[in-house]
Amino acid sequence: MKFLNLANHTPVIEQAYQGHMLIDGELCASQQGKITERKSPAHDVVVGIYPEGCREDAERAIEAARKAFDHGTWSNLSGSERAEVLIRVAEGIASRVEEMALIESLETGKPLLQARSEVSGCVDLWKYAAALARTLHGESYNNLGSSTLGVVIRQPIGVIAMITPWNFPIWILSQKLPFALAAGCTAVIKPSELTNGSTLILGEILREAGLPKGVVNIVTGLGPAVGEPLIHHPDVDMVSFTGSTRVGRHIAAEAGRSLKKVALELGGKNPQIIFPDCDWEAAVDAVVFGVYFNAGECCNSGSRILVHKDIVERFTLAVIERSQQVPVGDPLHPDVKVGAITSEAQLNIIQSAIENAKADGALIRLGGARIPTAKGMYFEPTILSNIKPSMSIAREEVFGPVLSILTFDTLEEAISIANQTSYGLSAAVWSKDIDTCLQAAKAIHAGTIWVNNFLEGFPELPFGGFKASGIGRELGLSAVEDYTEQKTVQFHIGERTHWWLTQT
């Protein structure tokens, strides 16, 4: 492992970013006047100062979103008019990539180079949503008889509550918000209290882009004070949440009491299946990338690999060798690929998962411990072998730079092991035999299957999971439709016969 730091380096901001909530078109503080500070997990210095919102702030935001929707200030615009605003938002993000990437890197601990790529990628998500705003359409049925014309139209659901996580703050929000806006909905957003910065900068961009007041509102604070009102309030029509499966179950249960629609993007325990005839170099690189990208703090992390028994030790040694070359350290260093762990709580979860795996019989082949540093929270890239499918480390999400290696003998066994978790978000299969790849892709219970690749995505392709990995899909052609309700309108043509005069 290579640990890289910037000697005597202070984060390149003269002062902490001071963000404001966005409620009814105005940048504002919390009604209670409280603030919260965010320290960089890599540098132990305050990098963000934000309002600590309360229930009253959440209720004001919901009221503003409800009023904006009911008055039609956004939903009554044409698709092309909404698209123009979304394009201006995309341009606004493009103009502030460096600022947004820096605050994301400082707050999450992820490498600045990676954060820059993610913020830049959001521009394409907003542009794609703008295109869908203009192409959203319904259906017509002229085959119902000479006296009937049927029309099915789509109308925006209403007020959407969006609760986003700390690992990809602006990216995940951009998988939700532009598509809801394209449909004509209004929104109240609650970002993670650990990573408010880029979301609040987006709030500034939305105002500058000319979004009518109240259409998007952003409240910052803790879940019990700000998040819970969004789930329970009768004026919220839908909840879109990305985060842990545990919290997702809670949201689904609570939203179900009032029959709100929910969209949930939750956890994953994603396998890569390695066959002897794989492209060796590509597979090794994809495994290392898949588990250490974003320090493993990723629902799509390739946190377990299933390797054919004929090559398992040779492949394991190759992955270990490549992992030892991965640069870990200060996320502002231009060569770093794995930065800091986002919080002390998450670091403790990672350490606990490894200790439990050791107790179950797992062998630590690489890493396994916190990296001692004067500042910041860093964890060694870790590889575990001698893993059985029944172990917790093979079935439960760790959310850290920890790879579990399992073995299989036949394709059928690999598929069985791949499906032996409660999750079903993604998977990959590595083989030059197209029949093997197709059989695996059809049989694995997951929302995305990569064939001889891993962790690539495009706005055009839907994203979401099976089983405990969530409900619904983001992105793709139907992304805007998910924020609409269908309405059937039947037109009668000509004179209608009175029913009591109808002959039987």
Structure summary:
With 504 residues, the chain is of the alpha/beta class. 36% of the residues lie in helices and 22% in strands.
Describe the structure.
With 504 residues, the protein is of the alpha/beta class. 36% of the residues lie in helices and 22% in strands. It contains 15 helices and 27 strands. The strands form 8 sheets. The chain has a 7-stranded mixed β-sheet, with helices on both faces. Strand 18 (370-371) and strand 19 (378-379) form a beta hairpin. The radius of gyration is 25 Å and the shape is globular. The chain starts with a strand and ends in a 12-residue tail after the last strand.
Note the beta-strand portion: 15-25%
- C-alpha termini separation: 85 Å
Helicity range of the residues?
25-40%
Largest sheet: 7 strands, mixed
**How many DSSP-defined strands?**
27
The overall pLDDT, averaged over residues, is 96
Q: Which stretches are low in confidence, meaning pLDDT under 50 for 5 or more residues running?
A: none
What is the alpha-carbon Rg in Å?
A: 25 Å
Task: Pick out its properties.
504 residues, alpha/beta, 7-stranded mixed beta sheet, 15 helices, 27 strands, 36% helix, globular
Layout of helices and strands, plus pairs?
Layout: E1 2-4, E2 17-18, E3 21-23, E4 26-28, E5 35-39, E6 46-51, H1 55-70, H2 79-95, H3 97-108, H4 112-135, E7 139-141, E8 148-156, E9 159-163, H5 169-174, H6 177-183, E10 186-190, H7 197-208, E11 216-218, H8 223-232, E12 238-242, H9 245-257, E13 261-265, E14 271-274, H10 280-292, E15 304-308, H11 312-323, E16 327-329, H12 344-360, E17 363-366, E18 370-371, E19 378-379, E20 382-385, H13 392-395, E21 402-408, H14 411-418, E22 423-424, E23 426-430, H15 434-443, E24 448-451, E25 466-467, E26 470-471, E27 484-492
Parallel strand pairs: 1-16, 2-6, 9-10, 9-12, 10-11, 12-13, 14-15, 14-23, 15-21, 20-21, 23-24
Antiparallel strand pairs: 3-4, 5-6, 7-8, 8-27, 13-26, 17-20, 18-19, 22-25
Helix pairs in contact: 1-8, 2-4, 2-6, 3-4, 4-6, 10-11
